[in-house]
Design brief:
The protein has 429 residues and is an alpha+beta fold. Helix content is 55%, strand content 17%. The chain has helices at 3-36, 62-69, 75-84, 179-192, 195-205, 223-249, 257-276, 283-306, 314-343, 348-370, 379-387, 389-406, 412-420, and strands spanning 42-49, 54-61, 86-90, 97-100, 104-108, 111-121, 130-134, 145-151, 157-163, 169-171, 210-213, 216-219. Strands 1, 2, 4, 5, 6, 8 and 9 form a seven-stranded mixed beta sheet that branches. Strands 3-7-10 form a three-stranded antiparallel beta sheet. The protein starts with a helix and ends in a 9-residue tail after the last helix.
Length: 429
């Protein structure tokens, strides 16, 4: 057996073992994820200041609150729990009386949530000056946060702050200066905690190191063209989601959340099909830009639920969008170098196909779940991986190092020779 044959055999064995390990790991994660994962890691408090009183709306994911209460919560249990964990104190030191409305169950970005309104009686004190203390879920889960959106008596909307385990109180007015910074962080975490947004971007990145030629994928030559492809995809996605996010904030575009969430699942599926076989030359740019419009509507939906809408909310929305872009750039920076290293070896066609198939399976389960036809069987896997993103980053890096060790990187000259004389182990697919 020649050295080349032995190396090719070892490469195939290691590729099969690695992909089998990913599948087996998914099964283990599913069992663990179903036991401990939460749907959302943040709640929202929308506070509206009037001339004589203050109203607030508390929204928290149903799975998150059910886990805290230990069971599927009744409306009375939800209201009682939130009332125990919310205290508003006036500038004169008096605690304001609270009147809670019935619980409303709604869907936010495909996640079932509890929403409850509460009327706060200032007792004749100045309603524009008060201290809000809230530690719902935070008292049990130190990683949980509560985003506070403030609408003042003039109708101006701002992000007042983010309550956390280290600071669960907010003096209205004093925290407004830090609101935009908080919204940047909120946008960053929203994308990093959203499996569908991340998988859409990662699936598009799978084809950045290759180029469509004659309806098939072929490896790009050189770093510069590959980086150019990455830049084109990221820019198209940014333009797409930024356009609809801003248009929705200004009231130019509205869309119900249910079909938007289904279309996001479809976007992942289309990106996966394109990664298997090119739909069009530079089709990844078209997919990123076109479906970026849909992802922007989803971002707008979560912000509308916060009470952020209209011209006065544009600064907060732009800050949120900056956070989205930072999450996007962070994802590219952490994952793409490993993908590029893989693309220089004969492993990459298998990795690209395997990644695309996994994305296609996830997209299908999301679509069926969001249409109400089938409960997502992979929910635990997705939530666990989102909670431990370094597993993905390190896993892809180790796969790249293993490929490099068993199959030296392909240079421009060697690749040109392979294009002229294709072999069964060649890089095209």
């Amino acid at each position: 057996m020649t050295t080349r044959t032995l190396r090719a055999l070892l490469s195939r064995v290691m590729a099969t073992t690695a992909l089998s390990g990913v599948a087996a790991g998914g099964v283990v994660l599913l069992a663990a994820g179903q036991a401990q994962a939460h749907s959302l890691t943040s709640s929202t408090l929308s506070v509206r200041v009037g001339d004589e009183q203050v109203e607030a709306t508390v929204s928290v994911a149903a799975d998150t609150l059910d886990a805290v209460l230990g069971e599927a919560a009744t409306d009375a249990a939800v209201t009682g729990y939130l009332a125990d964990h919310l205290t508003v104190t006036g500038s004169d030191g008096s605690v304001w009386a609270e009147t809670w409305s019935p619980v409303v169950r709604e869907t936010v970005e495909g996640i079932d949530s509890y929403r409850v309104d509460v009327m706060l009686d200032s007792g004749g004190a100045d309603p524009s000056s008060f201290t809000l203390a809230y530690d719902g879920v935070i008292a049990t889960d130190s990683s949980h946060e509560a985003v506070v959106v403030l609408t003042d008596a003039a109708g101006d909307i701002s992000t007042a702050g983010v309550l956390s385990a280290t600071d669960d109180t907010l003096v209205v007015g004093d925290a407004a200066a830090t609101g935009l910074t908080d919204m940047v962080g909120y946008g960053l975490h929203h994308v990093l905690e959203g499996a569908d947004h991340l998988l859409f971007l990662l699936t598009l990145l799978l084809v950045a190191p290759v180029v469509a030629v004659g309806g098939r994928w072929r490896r790009r030559d050189g770093v510069r063209p590959t980086l150019g492809a990455v830049l084109a995809v990221v820019t198209a996605f940014t333009v797409g989601h930024s356009s609809t996010l801003l248009a929705s904030a200004l009231g130019w575009v509205t869309a119900p959340s249910a079909p938007v969430e289904v279309l996001i699942a479809v976007s992942v599926g289309v990106a996966a099909v394109h990664a298997l076989r090119p739909l069009a030359r530079r089709g990844e740019v078209l997919v990123a830009g076109g479906f970026g419009l849909v992802h922007g509507l989803a971002f707008a939906g979560i912000l509308t639920d916060l009470g952020l809408a209209g011209v006065t909310s544009v600064p907060a929305l732009l800050a949120f969008n900056v956070g989205v872009e930072l999450a996007q750039l962070l994802t590219v920076a952490l994952v793409f170098p490993s993908l590029y290293l893989l693309s220089r070896t004969r492993w990459y066609p298998r990795v690209r196909v395997a990644g695309a198939l996994l994305a296609l399976v996830a997209a299908t389960t999301w679509a069926l779940d969001r249409l109400g036809w089938l409960a997502d069987p992979l929910a635990g896997v997705e939530e666990t991986l989102v909670a431990h993103p370094w597993w993905v980053v390190v896993g892809v890096a180790l796969l790249a190092l293993a490929a490099r060790a068993t199959d030296p990187p392909v240079g421009r000259g060697r690749w040109a020779a392979r294009r002229a004389v294709p072999t069964s182990a060649g890089p095209t697919r």
